[in-house]
Amino acid sequence: MNVHFEVVKEAEYEVFRKDVKDIFSIAVKEEFGELEDEVITDEEINESLDKPKAQVYYVYVDQKKVGGVVLEIDDDTHHNSVELLYVYPNCHSQGIGYTIWKGIEEKYPETKVWELVTPYFEKRNINFYVNKCGFKIVEFFNKYHPNPKLKKDENGFKEDFFRFQKIMK
Question: Which of 49, 112, 139, 152 is the most buried (most CB within 10 A)?
């Protein structure tokens, strides 16, 4: 499978935000049922999109659009992060996520450390990052150890996150 990253233009951010919201809501609905509040808000997505070092891409595999990613790339420290990564549900369980991840590693070979966070209940993500991509869980954010970057929320699903890290060789 051949992976290709296409820069998302600012004029396309609305469509990108909708993709993120739609796909992120799937696991939450499966775990908690229908919710009154948004799973992720425009403001939260914009925080990732608007970071000074953000790289925003649509991802294509074999010339088919399969998802998107927001990376924060620090060319000075080479400590980079995955801010948002999504794969369309009809592309799950086909090796596409792993192909995307390998493509990200190839695109940024100077990376020393990759980091990301994912909700505690996202078993699919946890399995993917730990068992497929080689990340380690290095921190658990919860009410006893809050993530200083996140705002308080009444809904527990936004409270408990794992922080993952992959040290590159």
Answer: 49
